[in-house]
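dude i think i finally got it to work??
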Amino acid sequence: MATVDQPLTVSQIRDAEDWTMLTVPERDLMDRAAEAVARECSLLLAARPEGVAGAEVVVLAGPGNNGGDALLAGALLAERGATVRAIPCGGRLHERGEARLSAAAGSRVEPSAGAVLVAGADLVVDGIVGLGAKAGLREPAASLVPLIPPTTPVVAVDLPSGLEADSGDDDAPHVRATVTVTFTAPKRCLVEQPAAQAAGRVIIADVGIELTEHEG
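look at this
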């Protein structure tokens, strides 16, 4: 396991993930990522008089592993007493993540009902897209993200959706995070302006990715 402080490219991260998954199951890496995200969510919700219990949490989840991480984090929050609703932002939800959330009494809500939930949430988890995505937001995220009140804490999984990992540009619509929980190493969009201002406080979580000497 390792983390580094200097930015790595998407290609470098992918290579390290592929190497690690020769010996470590992908689900283990995702579970560790979810724990790290849920920890930061819990810290933000601790500012509420009731803490995590009874908090209204909305997970904006894409269909890939980034969305899966967000759903698994949502399941952990649900187990701690939060009311967690997941809105699919890519037509479907990550299968294991959705099953885990459902088992924890979380629920799936269709995007058509998402506007009220997003506007009234105590916290939003951004798991819309991951490292390989192009800049910008697609529907339904493009309509839902602007409805998040400026005072609502947002935790982004790996990077704020809408930014490109390998770029410091922020020209396209994107999520503005309170905290970004990124894995293994920062990405250029988290440290280079103007994109970095959308990342909020950046946490580099060790999820067990093995870095080569060149990457580390």
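Residues 10-205 form a domain with the Rossmann fold fold (CATH 3.40.50.10260).
im so relieved honestly
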